[in-house]
Amino acid sequence: MATTRAAQQIAQAKAEYDAFLTTCPSHKLVERISGKWVVLILAALGSGPDCAGDPRPMRYSELSRLLAGVSQKMLTQTLRSLERDGLISRTVIPTVPVTVSYELTDLGLSLFRTMRGLKQWAQTHMDEVFAHRTMSLTRSARSGGQQAFPRSA
C-alpha cells in the first residue's frame, strides 16, 4: 500500500510541474537546457560537424574544435551536467592516451529533435533580425535616443 501512495504522490507532483515557478524543478531544467553551449553541443552530437548528418559519438577534442569560443572549463562543465541529466552518455576507451567520447542518449535525442530547430531558425532569420535592429537604431536616432544593438549581440 505504501508504494501505491508513493506512486500517487510522484504522479501528483509531475502533474503539478510548472516551469513558470522558480521553485519548480522543471524551471531549473529549462534554465539548464536553454544555455547556448547546451544547444550547440546537442546540435553537434545530433547531426555531426556539418549539422546535416545523423547522430554520432564525438570525442571531446572534436567538440572543442567545433564549438568556437567554448572554454575547456565550460565544455567540461556542460558535458558533465548533460551526462548527469541523462541527455548524453560518456564512454571511456582505454587507449594511450585515453579516448573519451560523448553520445546522445534516447532522452538527449528527443531533446535534440526539439532544439535543432532553434539553431536552424537563428541561422535562417539572422538577416531579418539585423534589419529590425537597424530600423530600431534609426528610429531611436531620429527620436534622440542612444540605444545600441551591436551586430554580435
Description of the structure:
With 153 residues, the protein is mainly alpha-helical. The protein has helices spanning 2-15, 25-33, 36-47, 60-66, 72-84, 106-142; strands at 58-59, 88-93, 99-104. It has a 3-stranded antiparallel β-sheet. A hairpin with a 5-residue loop joins strand 2 (88-93) and strand 3 (99-104). The protein starts with a helix and ends in an 11-residue tail after the last helix.
The tally of strands reads 3
Arrangement of strands in the largest sheet: 1-3-2
Helical proportion, percent range: 55-70%
Specify the structural class: mainly alpha
What is the makeup of the main sheet? 3 strands, antiparallel
The helix count comes to: 6
What global shape is seen? flat
The gyration radius over C-alpha positions equals 21 Å
Output the helix-strand order: HHHEHHEEH
Give the overall pLDDT as a whole number. 85
Distance N terminus to C terminus? 56 Å
- Residue share in β-strands: 5-15%
Runs in which pLDDT lies below 50 for 5 or more consecutive residues are none
Could you name the key traits of this structure?
6 helices; mainly alpha
